[in-house]
């Protein structure tokens, strides 16, 4: 599939600088994939049965393996499902996934997931005359509202609104608007449908199931017996073969669709035209053109002339959703580039040829694997680029950055786009408004970076360990003791024996008494205190498990059973302990919520129920409310 590039040299010059982009169209039955190597150059289209794969990540990995494409930085998925937030659970398939976790698993810098009808709508302005087929008269007006209908499994509706030099796609559930019969035959269909459904929407009579319903209603009128296994596909087959009853059902179906399309056109003022997608209309072929669709579309009394001027089109493009997700992804990446946050990427590209060969290797690493630069310490960056550590620093300064930390900040900002990663220095003379905003911005940025880079597989392991623990002890020295005490306050409510120690002598004495089933959660910003490491070594020799909340690549992270690493980009040492403490507290909250969810199916008199009562007795109403909600929610008693 290609929109056509004049010649190979022009195509090569126009290729995406950041590599090929993965496009996907995920339906209830099949998953379709393609690669876009340049604007409009879409190829390597492959189709995979969804039932053959346990999840969306696995089928995407299979496609990448089959095409041997190598590194893909950006991907976009159109999916036959509402998309609201990070978690997507398909309604017509058993796949359920986190967008962010999938992005991490596949190593993409960008992963967009949009509703398939939104993607189809965004494809409309780019369709050529060869990719659409007009039904009836009318002429579309440029830069006017465009309507979209999709009779398929359901009845999708969307609308495109022009806004300056771009389009805004609006999601809609217009297919669930109440069906209104136009004539006596449709009255009969309505009466038949009312016996089956408490609410008869246009989707009930104007999608795949509607074609079957109409046929059965007309068959009942004519006292014709219809087999239980009879389907909409059978209606289409019989109509194409010339069966009178099937032809009448198809004409009735098309007329109802024409009424609905006309309703959408006058409601939206869709002078840019009404487009029809989905597979049903395409399968009807010439029957649709001969049907009452267009006549019914214009049958709006005083507004007949208004509707006569609005064109209606059938979308004939083979994979129109690819065009739509391509447009959405391009706009997303363009917004990121034009925001100024990714100026560092453009700066690297502009000056790459002027760099020394060694510095050029660092530049290539930053362009091709930016998350590696953000996550790794300087020793690993130098090793991956095959240069010395001073060369990494020289490269950063050649870009106008103060050093590696400053470069990481700018790179992270350009990479994440919609995630505001920033750092502002507090200066003498700042007002409370100034330094207050800077402190808050720095903390928010650190939390967002933690969300971006936290290893959630290790989080799951830690939660499982804590949930099965016989006893939990929290160790922290100095500022970390505050976090340990907070953790103890949260976890004792789960009915697990817990205690927090901020003194090395007490830690050593208690650790020597631990054994299998006991867990130590060690909180340390530096992860290098030799005394703490010796204490933990003793406990592990006794059979205890150690969960570390610390920085990456520290002795503590390397020795612990499970390490939850809380790296963050900082410049001034004076602010490290402040932000690290916040991140450590956030990790504790994540672990506490995880354990609460694992344990949130209690019966009366269970540990958690007793904990709720203890929390109320102690006056901690907020904690009691949260725990009470968890216990009732998990047992199915929650109303919301």
List keywords for this structure.
single chain, 640 residues, alpha/beta, Nucleotidyltransferase, domain 5, Hexokinase, domain 1, Arc Repressor Mutant, subunit A, 4 domains, six-stranded mixed β-sheet, five-stranded mixed β-sheet, 18 strands, 16% strand, elongated, disordered N terminus, disordered C terminus
Question: Could you walk me through the main structural features you see in this protein, from its secondary elements to its overall organization?
Answer:
The protein is α/β, with parallel strands linked by helices and 640 residues long. It has 4 domains: 8-127 and 322-332, Nucleotidyltransferase, domain 5, CATH 3.30.420.40; 129-316, Hexokinase, domain 1 (3-Layer(aba) Sandwich), CATH 3.40.367.20; 339-419, Winged helix-like DNA-binding domain superfamily/Winged helix DNA-binding domain (Arc Repressor Mutant, subunit A), CATH 1.10.10.10; 452-599, Glucose-6-phosphate isomerase like protein, domain 1 (Rossmann fold). 50% of the residues lie in helices and 16% in strands. The chain is built from 29 helices and 18 strands. A 6-stranded mixed β-sheet has the order 8-13-12-9-10-11, with helices on both faces. A 5-stranded mixed β-sheet has the order 3-2-1-4-7, with helices on both faces. A 5-stranded parallel β-sheet has the order 15-14-16-17-18, with helices on both faces. A hairpin with a 3-residue loop joins strand 9 (146-151) and strand 10 (155-163). Helix 7 (208-221) crosses helix 8. The longest helix is centred in the middle third of the chain and has 25 residues, at 244-268. It is elongated and about 90 Å long. It starts with 7 loop residues before the first helix and ends in a 6-residue tail after the last helix. Mean pLDDT is 82; it is low at 1-13, 416-423, 569-576, 602-606, 615-620 and 629-640. Pfam families: Glucokinase, HTH_6, SIS. The chain crosses the membrane at residues 260-285, 306-329. This is Glucokinase. It is an enzyme of class 2 (transferase). ATP binds at residues 24-29.
């Amino acid at each position: 599939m290609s929109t056509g590039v004049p010649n190979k040299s022009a195509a090569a010059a126009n290729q995406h600088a950041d590599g090929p982009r993965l496009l996907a169209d995920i339906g209830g039955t099949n998953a379709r994939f393609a690669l876009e190597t340049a604007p409009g150059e879409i190829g390597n289209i492959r189709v995979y049965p969804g039932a053959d794969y346990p999840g969306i990540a696995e089928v995407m990995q299979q496609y990448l393996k089959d095409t041997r494409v190598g590194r893909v930085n950006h991907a976009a998925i159109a999916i036959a499902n509402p998309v609201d937030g990070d978690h997507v659970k398909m309604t017509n398939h058993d796949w359920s996934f986190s967008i962010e976790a999938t992005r991490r698993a596949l190593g993409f810098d960008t992963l967009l997931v949009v509703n398939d009808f939104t993607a189809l709508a965004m494809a409309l302005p780019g369709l050529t005359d060869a990719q659409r087929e007009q039904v009836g008269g009318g002429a579309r007006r440029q830069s006017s509202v465009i309507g979209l209908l999709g009779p398929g499994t359901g009845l999708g509706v969307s609308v495109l609104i022009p806004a300056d030099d771009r389009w805004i796609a609006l999601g809609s559930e217009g297919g669930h608007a109440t069906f209104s019969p136009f004539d006596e035959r449709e009255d009969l269909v309505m009466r038949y449908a009312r016996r089956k459904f408490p609410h008869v929407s246009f989707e009930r009579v104007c999608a795949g199931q509607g074609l079957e319903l109409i046929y059965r209603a007309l068959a009942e009128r004519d006292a014709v017996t219809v087999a239980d296994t009879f389907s909409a596909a059978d209606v289409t087959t019989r109509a194409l073969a010339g069966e009178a009853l099937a032809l009448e059902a198809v004409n009735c179906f098309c007329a109802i669709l024409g009424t609905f399309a006309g309703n959408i056109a006058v409601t939206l003022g869709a002078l840019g035209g009404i487009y029809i997608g989905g597979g049903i209309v395409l399968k009807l072929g010439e029957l649709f053109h001969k049907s009452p669709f267009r006549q019914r579309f214009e049958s709006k009394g005083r507004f007949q002339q208004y509707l006569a001027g609005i064109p209606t089109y059938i979308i004939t493009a083979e994979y129109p959703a690819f065009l739509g997700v391509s447009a959405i992804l391009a706009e997303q990446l363009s917004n990121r580039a034009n925001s100024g946050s990714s100026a560092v990427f453009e700066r690297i590209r502009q000056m790459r040829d002027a760099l020394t060969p060694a510095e050029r290797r660092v530049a290539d690493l930053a362009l091709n694997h930016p998350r590696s630069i953000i996550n790794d310490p300087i020793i690993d960056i130098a090793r991956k680029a095959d240069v010395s550590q001073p060369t990494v620093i020289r490269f950063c300064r050649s870009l106008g950055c103060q050093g590696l930390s400053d470069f990481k900040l700018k790179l992270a900002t350009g990479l994440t786009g919609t995630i505001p990663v920033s750092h502002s220095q507090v200066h003498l003379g700042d007002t409370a408004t100034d330094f207050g905003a800077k402190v808050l911005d720095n903390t928010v940025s650190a939390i967002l970076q933690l969300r971006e880079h936290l290893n959630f597989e290790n989080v799951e392991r830690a939660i499982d360990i804590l949930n099965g623990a016989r006893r939990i002890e929290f160790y922290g020295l100095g500022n970390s003791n505050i976090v340990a005490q907070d953790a103890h306050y949260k976890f004792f409510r789960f009915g697990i024996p817990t205690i927090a120690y901020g003194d090395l002598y007490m830690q050593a004495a208690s650790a020597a008494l631990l054994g299998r089933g006991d867990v130590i959660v060690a909180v340390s910003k530096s992860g290098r205190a030799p005394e703490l490491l010796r204490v933990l070594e003793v406990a592990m020799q006794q059979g205890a498990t150690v969960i570390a909340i610390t920085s990456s690549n520290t002795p503590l992270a390397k020795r612990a059973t499970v390490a939850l690493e809380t790296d963050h980009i900082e410049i001034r040492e004076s602010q490290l302990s402040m932000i690290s403490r916040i991140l450590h507290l956030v990790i504790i909250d994540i672990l506490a919520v995880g354990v609460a969810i694992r344990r949130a199916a209690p019966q009366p008199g269970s540990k958690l129920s007793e904990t709720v009562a203890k929390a109320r007795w102690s006056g901690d109403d907020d904690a009691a409310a949260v725990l009470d909600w968890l216990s009732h929610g998990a047992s199915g008693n929650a109303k919301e």
